[in-house]
Automatic annotation (TrEMBL):
The system is composed of three essential subunits: KdpA, KdpB and KdpC. Pfam families: KdpC (PF02669). Keywords: ATP-binding, Cell membrane, Ion transport, Membrane, Nucleotide-binding, Potassium, Potassium transport, Transmembrane, Transmembrane helix, Transport. It comes from Sphingobacterium anhuiense. Belongs to the KdpC family. HAMAP family: KdpC. Part of the high-affinity ATP-driven potassium transport (or Kdp) system, which catalyzes the hydrolysis of ATP coupled with the electrogenic transport of potassium into the cytoplasm. This subunit acts as a catalytic chaperone that increases the ATP-binding affinity of the ATP-hydrolyzing subunit KdpB by the formation of a transient KdpB/KdpC/ATP ternary complex. Transmembrane segments: none annotated. NCBIfam families: kdpC, PRK00315.1, PRK14002.1. It is a single-pass membrane protein. This is Potassium-transporting ATPase KdpC subunit. Its main location: membrane. It is found in: Cell membrane.
């Protein structure tokens, strides 16, 4: 028994030191050489400061709506929903989001609404949405802001982030950056 216990204790101690001290220190040290010391990209616009890597609530019709958040866009309470796709209260919540979206976007059908506009991400703080999520909102924003739809489509194209190395993940758009660019376009 001693033959197995002492190596197990040694291995446990080594792993504790590695994962509780060495690894966190290495991650912290690498973050110090990253832009903004690993604190994420900070954007200042109209006197307000935003983190571009944390989802923001955009529900005004003048803006591209962001992805819903199960955490209320609170980074301290980052969490997804534990409700499954057959949960009655979850289904009612999604149906409410669909109905709200259709009221504000009357030219869109239910089938045209991308899933990321009516379902929250796993973290509840996803700052991105799909290109389709931006495109289905163009008519509403063009009408309200009196901007040509072609100009909005160009704006969407300019802010589309391609998949990693052209292979991994879908094309996506950072909603905060897109809405800031939208405000700048409107100001011209």
């Amino acid at each position: 028994m001693k033959k197995h216990i002492f190596p197990a204790i040694k291995l446990t101690f080594i792993l504790i030191v590695f994962f509780a001290v060495i690894y966190p220190f290495a991650v912290w040290a690498i973050a110090q050489v990253a832009p903004n010391e690993g604190k994420g990209e900070i954007i200042t616009f109209k006197g307000r400061t935003y983190y571009s890597n944390i989802g923001q609530a955009f529900t005004n019709d003048h803006y591209f709506w962001s992805r819903p958040s199960a955490a209320g866009y609170n980074a301290a309470g980052s969490a997804g929903s534990n409700k499954g796709p057959s949960n009655p209260s979850y289904l009612a919540e999604v149906k409410g989001r669909i109905d709200t979206f259709l009221v504000h976007n009357p030219t869109i059908t239910k089938a045209q609404i991308p899933a990321d506009l009516i379902t929250a991400s796993a973290s509840g703080l996803d700052p991105h949405f799909s290109v389709q999520a931006a495109q289905v909102q163009v008519k509403r924003i063009a009408k309200i802001r009196n901007i040509a739809e072609a100009d909005l489509m160009t704006l969407i194209h300019e802010h589309t982030e391609k998949p990693l190395i052209g292979l991994f993940g879908p094309a996506k758009i950072n909603v905060l950056k897109l809405n800031i660019a939208l405000d700048q376009l409107s100001a011209k």
